[in-house]
Structure formats: C-alpha cells, structure tokens
Write a structure and sequence with these properties.
two-stranded antiparallel sheet, alpha/beta, 10 strands, TIM Barrel
Length: about 270
C-alpha cells in the first residue's frame, strides 16, 4: 500500500550532530555523521518501505537554521519528486519570516510550515507565531508542530496540546494543524483536541507502530481514521522499522489506507 511520510527530514550535519540530539543517538544507537548524507540514502530508505512521498522539513532555531529552506529545496530538487519541502521560520524576525514562508511556498512549492516550539522555548500561542499562522491560512498550507514530551535535551512544557494547540485552533479556525509525535504522555488530551477541532490532526512521527499508545490505536481504528497520519522522524527511525508491526494493530484496510497516505494527501494537497 503506498505511503506518505508526514514527519521526516533529510539532515544537514549541523542538525544531525547537534548536542541536543545526544538522547536520540543514545536511544537509537546511531553515532555522529562524519560527512553529509547523500539524498539517495534517504530515498533508498523510503523505497524499502514503499514510501512514495516524504515531507522533508527545514529546522530553524534561535541560533539560526539547522536545515535551511534553501537546503531543503536542493534536497527536493535531487529527489525526482519523492521529497516535498516543509518550510521553517526564524521567529525572532516575524515580518521576514512571513516573506520567507511565502518564498518557500510560491517559488519552491513547499507544502507546509513546521515550527518546533521546544527549540525556541516558546509555546505555539506566542505572539511571534501568529503572523505565520495567518500566512499559512492565506497560502492554503497546514501548520505542523510537535506535541508531547521532548526527546531532545530541551524542556517539554511547550508540547502540551491543552492549552496551546486548543487555543491556536480557536484563534485560527481555518488553519490546518498537524501535531507530530502523538502527544505522549498527553495523548488523551491530544485526541480530545483533535476531536474538538475539525482542522486538528495527529501524526505518529518518532514512534514505531509497536509503541503507539493503545488510546491512539483505538482512535485510529474508529472515529479518528481521518485524523491520524503516518510519520517516522527519519533518519532517527526508518520507515521500514516503523511499519514492521503495523499489521498487528488490526486497523482494517480503509483506516490503514487513510493512515498511510490518504489523510496526508488530502491535508497537504499532494
């Protein structure tokens, strides 16, 4: 069955080797990269798991870009249509950030914006984010963010679905919001917010299928079948590793198709 990976990145060295990812390297047993990873290596990992499209994201933080929009555009150009760009933004320069987002969408064809609140140690409700949300609505693209605890060595408070995602959805009812990393340990709260708001979705990046919380699996099987998207957090976890035990969850053919690709194609207009 075709797959769309809604949460991934092709890494730059300054991203993969950053000190804050030491916890992730410890969990996965991966060492530091000694040289830039070729795009063909990422494409091979996608192909091995029948992933047709990967949404490859930029990363911007207070010290500058860890993966810039221009770098993502170059990765996409080398991917023969397999990668689609997801923009990042410098929150300290909100006017320029909006202009840069428009450039990424209108010139490069990027399909979404992603902000990591924990990287900025600012909640999604911070005023610096709001011009970008308005721009996303105007451009017709989703806003992607992280919910739940923070795996990297940074505080986790900004990942609470309630009050933060709930408030953003109230303030921007036209904004599609894709919440990555399930929301654990606040998964039940994340499901409640997705139920409440027609435009709020959940993706499963950073978790293998065997580690999906039971409440998310139940949601995916039933009323949340149009609300949950497949993600990996590649290269931390490869798509094949994530999908290895998906069949054991028994979501059924319709829910599986929506989860693996249908929801992402609809939400990101792929």
């Amino acid at each position: 069955m075709p797959v769309v990976d809604a949460w991934m990145q092709h890494p730059a060295l300054r991203h993969s080797n950053h000190e804050m990812f030491e916890s992730l390297r410890r969990w996965t047993g991966r060492g530091l990269l000694e040289e830039p990873l070729p795009v063909k290596v990422t494409l091979a990992a996608l192909t091995a798991a029948d992933v047709e499209i990967g949404l490859s994201a930029a990363w911007y933080g207070p010290q500058g870009p860890l993966i810039s929009n221009d770098e993502v555009a170059e990765f996409v150009a080398q991917s023969e249509g397999r990668l689609r760009g997801v923009a990042g933004a410098d929150l300290t320069r909100p006017v320029q950030a909006v202009r840069e987002l428009r450039r990424a969408v209108e010139e490069f064809g990027f399909v979404a914006l992603r902000i990591m609140p924990w990287l900025w140690q600012l909640p999604p409700t911070d005023r610096l984010c709001y011009p970008l949300y308005a721009a996303c609505v105007d451009l017709g693209i989703p806003f992607c963010t992280q919910v739940g605890h923070t795996g990297p060595l940074r505080p986790s408070e900004t990942g609470r679905p309630i009050p933060y995602i709930d408030q953003v959805a109230l303030d921007f009812p036209e904004l599609a919001i894709v919440c990555g990393h399930i929301g654990y340990p606040w998964t039940t709260a994340m499901i409640a917010v997705a139920d409440k708001h027609a435009t709020v979705y959940i993706d499963t990046g950073a978790y293998t299928a065997r580690r999906y919380p039971p409440e998310l699996v139940d949601y995916l099987r039933d009323r949340g079948r149009r609300k949950v998207l497949f993600g990996t957090n590649h290269p931390m976890i490869t798509p094949g590793w994530v999908l290895k035990h998906l069949g054991e969850l028994g979501p059924g053919e319709e829910a599986t198709e929506l989860f693996l690709s249908g929801n992402a194609r609809r939400i990101f207009s792929l």
